[in-house]
Design a protein that fits this description.
heterodimer; A: alpha/beta; 4-stranded antiparallel sheet; B: about 280 residues; mainly alpha; 12 helices; globular; binds adenosine-5'-triphosphate; binds magnesium ion
Chain lengths: ~250, ~280
């Protein structure tokens, strides 16, 4: 069991200046799982990701990768930031190749590897285009492709769809569902959208307090592959209500 | 299903290609400029003739053209190359030193703290007033002229490059760090390319300043060059000759500017421009 644990956070705390953001938080993610972290806006979701990927060090507690304490985590976790952060002067394929170049592949090798993957991300025709020629959804896919090319089992996706309009967003969710079925990566996904979390995840961790102290776990057992029409099923609606009242209950305590 | 999805989520918008630079509106701008130039020259000519303005005060364009033609071998064969040489050498030195120092300032916090105040001061010090000092130090020969050109052009390049390097988004740097990038990789793959547009803005300003610098250097004492020739003409009240050198100097500045603008278009991805257009 412990062997297949990809990520473990143990009693992790972090404060910005004097303000406590994360308070003794513990959770884990197992290999192949899609786990969502649901918390209200401004709750500290991005902060948790920045600790996991090594940009921030927790003030106390331990972060484990693949079952071992990982004191330096930079370069060991695939991270898709909240904004797409594509370099405007690089084409789509060149943007996606950045992590490979950093890992030491030559430009040629990196280009070949990217070429193989462009199709799966629906970007084949846009390999030579520049980011500002793409729609928001496409840019997010480039950003995701880039994240997957890091040398790691674990992918952190920070609200990848929050900036997209409704229709594009649904499309992207379905696309990600299909992609996950094919790829079998381990994903930790951050969102403040309950429906999105329910649709995509195997497990949802809900934090309803500030600072983020403990998370309530919901198992989501709808069969895969899923479709976005799932959101009209009674069980889905029921879970959604339950999670919503849990979230609101926490906020009312403040 | 996949390709279907693409069609939906795709804005049918491609990158503005380079071949679009010759669009009709741009043609129009050039046309109107030529038209207005012709009008201004005509008006000028007319004014001089009708009001009998003495030629030593304001020569008509025809006189200037005549002077240019008569002095062509002297001006273009002798004086222009001298000034050109000074400007180009000074500008080249400034580009190397200015961008080099900017990079050093970004690499070393100590250097940054030591140099930064001068960078602010450079915006307020009248370089013109310092020029005679430079002639004192570097002499009346070529090195003195080059030194003055460097004086005129160094700071725009330093400020531009430094600004550009400084302005790399912190979020981008952090993203690179999460990919395991070391400082050198962050510098070459992120900071340098994102500073390039600012570097070019600095160089374009400096390119036109280099001509002024060379001219001032020659005013302060020289035996050849357009600045020297123009000053001598002014001393002798030969206004058409003076204006002829001014025309050549302006052309030189414009051509410098255009060369660097071309290089910029060639090597810098033009995002800012496209955003403005939206
Ligand atoms: N570098 C920082 N220094 C100080 N405070 C910060 C810093 N970064 C974030 N914060 C604060 O910490 C809190 C949590 O921020 P964080 O970005 O982690 O929240 P989030 O849940 O990701 O928010 P959002 O839903 O807007 O993405 C916020 O109140 C934010 O203002
Ligand atoms: Mg966030």
């Amino acid at each position: 069991m412990a062997v297949s644990e990809v990520l473990g956070c143990h009693q992790v705390s972090l404060r910005y200046d004097e303000r406590l953001i994360i308070d003794k938080l513990s959770f884990h993610v197992t290999k192949g799982e899609f786990v969502s972290l649901l918390a209200p806006s401004g709750g500290g979701k991005s902060t948790i990701f920045k600790m996991i990927n090594g940009l921030l060090e927790p003030d106390s507690g331990e972060i484990h990768l693949n079952g071992l304490v990982a004191p330096s985590r930079l370069g060991k976790v695939g991270y898709m930031p909240q904004k797409d952060l594509l370099l405007p002067w690089r084409t789509i394929e060149e943007n996606a190749a950045i992590p490979l170049e950093i890992r030491g592949f030559s430009r040629k090798e990196a280009g070949d590897i990217v070429q193989e993957r462009l199709c799966a991300f629906g970007l084949y025709d846009y390999a030579k285009a520049y980011p500002n020629a793409l729609s928001g959804g496409m840019r997010q896919r480039v950003s995701l492709l880039r994240a997957t090319l890091s040398d790691s089992e674990l992918l952190l996706l920070d609200e990848p769809f929050s900036a997209l309009d409704g229709i594009t967003r649904t499309e992207m969710q379905e696309w990600l569902l299909a992609w996950c079925v094919r790829e079998q990566r381990t994903i930790l996904f951050v969102t403040h959208d309950i429906e999105e979390a329910l649709l995509l995840s195997d497990r949802i961790l809900v934090a309803n307090n500030k600072p983020i102290r403990e998370v309530k776990e919901y198992k989501v057992e709808f069969v895969k592959p899923r479709h976005s029409s799932l959101r009209f099923e009674p069980l889905f609606v029921h879970m959604r209500k339950e999670m919503l009242s849990y979230l609101q209950g926490g906020m009312a305590d403040e | 299903m996949n390709s279907n999805l693409n069609d939906l989520s795709l804005k049918k918008k491609r990158r503005q290609g380079r071949n679009q630079t010759f669009n009709p509106s741009k043609h129009n701008v050039l046309l109107w400029f030529i038209l207005s130039l012709v009008l201004v020259l005509l008006l000028w000519e007319l004014l001089c003739r009708l009001m009998n303005v003495p030629a030593f005060l304001l020569p008509p364009p025809s006189e200037i053209a005549k002077a240019l033609w008569n002095l062509r071998t002297q001006l273009i064969g002798e004086h222009l190359p001298t000034t050109l040489q000074e400007a180009i050498l000074g500008l080249a030195i400034s580009i190397v030193l200015g961008s080099g120092l900017a990079i050093w300032m970004r690499i070393s916090a100590t250097v940054e703290k030591m140099i930064y105040p001068y960078l602010i001061m450079s915006q307020t010090i009248p370089v013109l007033a310092l020029s005679p000092v430079f002639i004192m130090w570097f002499g009346y020969e070529l090195p003195g002229k080059i030194a003055i050109v460097v004086l005129f052009t160094f700071f725009p390049i330093l400020v531009g490059t430094y600004d550009g390097l400084k302005r790399t988004e912190q979020e981008m740097v952090e993203l690179f760090q999460t990919m395991g990038a070391n400082r050198r990789q962050i510098f070459t793959k992120l900071q340098l390319p994102s500073a390039l547009p600012h570097f070019f803005s600095g160089v374009k300003v400096a390119a036109t300043f280099s001509v002024s610098g060379a001219t001032v250097g020659e005013w302060l004492g020289a035996s050849e060059g357009l600045g020297y020739f123009g000053r001598r003409a002014a001393g002798n009240f030969q206004a058409p000759n003076l204006f002829a050198t001014v025309v050549l100097l302006s052309l030189m500045g414009i051509i410098f500017f255009l060369i660097f603008r071309w290089l910029e278009k060639r090597f810098v991805y033009q995002e800012a421009r496209e955003e403005k257009r939206k």
